[in-house]
Write a structure and sequence with these properties.
The protein has about 160 residues and is mostly helical. Helices cover about 60% and strands about 0% of the residues. It has eight helices and no strands. The chain has helices spanning about 25-35, 40-50, 55-65, 70-85, 90-95, 105-115, 120-125, 135-155. Helix 2 (about 40-50) packs antiparallel against helix 3 (about 55-65), helix 2 runs parallel beside helix 4 and helix 4 (about 70-85) packs parallel to helix 6 (about 105-115). The protein is globular and about 40 Å long. The chain binds fe (ii) ion (FE2). Fe (ii) ion (FE2) binds near residues 107, 108 and 111.
Length: about 160
Amino acid sequence: MSEDIPDTSEFGSVDPAPPSGMTDVETLREILCNEESKMFARMRALFALRNIGGNESVDALANAFDSESALLKHEIAYVMGQMQDSHAVPYLIERLSDSDEDLMVRHEAAEALGAIGDRVAMDTLEKFRYDSEPVIAESCEVAIDLMNWVQSKSLEY
Ligand SMILES: [Fe+2]
């Protein structure tokens, strides 16, 4: 492992693809959204956008929710949860609420909403808490419990 390629990110996880060294959000968005690009390159753009952060990066990531790839979309939802940015909440609510969306994506959107912890998402999580798809129902239950747990912790201090 060379020194300039860390094996873990600041998020404490090993990414499935190393973040791209590019820093221009628009260029990264184009790579991420290009259905002709290799998935590895798109993932590298995705993790670069996560590391850059901010509203512009969140918007660029959300742009690729139009992608054909459930794998990519689930990864987008995952990094939005890691970013813990409330700007991502409306996008995640939209993915969770889309019953035509892949279950893996909806599951990850619910988890990300729990991780972000913005209670704006609570109504949506409650709505799908007893969904007929166990994966969705369970994901929403965990997200709700996580938010309530974080809130009870913050009240202790
Ligand atoms: Fe997950």
